[in-house]
Amino acid sequence: MRFREKRIAKSVINLTSMVDMLFLILLFFLVTSSFIEQPNIKLELPSTRYASTSKLEERTLTISQDGKLFFQNEPVERKELISVLKNAFLKQDDKTLVLRADKNVPYGAVVDIMDAAKGAGLRRIVAPTILEPEKQP
What we know:
Blueprint: H1 16-32, E1 47-48, E2 60-63, E3 69-71, E4 74-76, H2 81-88, E5 96-101, H3 107-119, E6 124-126, E7 130-131
Parallel strand pairs: 1-7, 2-5, 5-6
Antiparallel strand pairs: 2-3, 3-4
Subcellular location: Cell membrane
Main location: membrane
GO molecular function: transmembrane transporter activity
């Protein structure tokens, strides 16, 4: 008596549709995520060892190395600075300005800008820095 051999059918899982779905999900997250835009202003912030870095980026005034002023990434003339700051903080409860200045900007220019900010009625000025890595002895 001859017995027929049973053929065992191997089941194969098709991964193509799963890879397609993962690609679509990845694409969805890339498109919907928000990216932090940095202005095209070349700036080298001073470094500190002990100061904490600031996370405030809402109202930013930037002083580039050549002394140009940018408020919210838009160029501002020095003579218009007080009126621009007054208008920007008119309806704001938190009158905090983030002042980003290149480390090569003269100290007098930074103090002049800080004085103009105080003249515009701002209560607090925050100056972000880059945290230096600790050196091992």
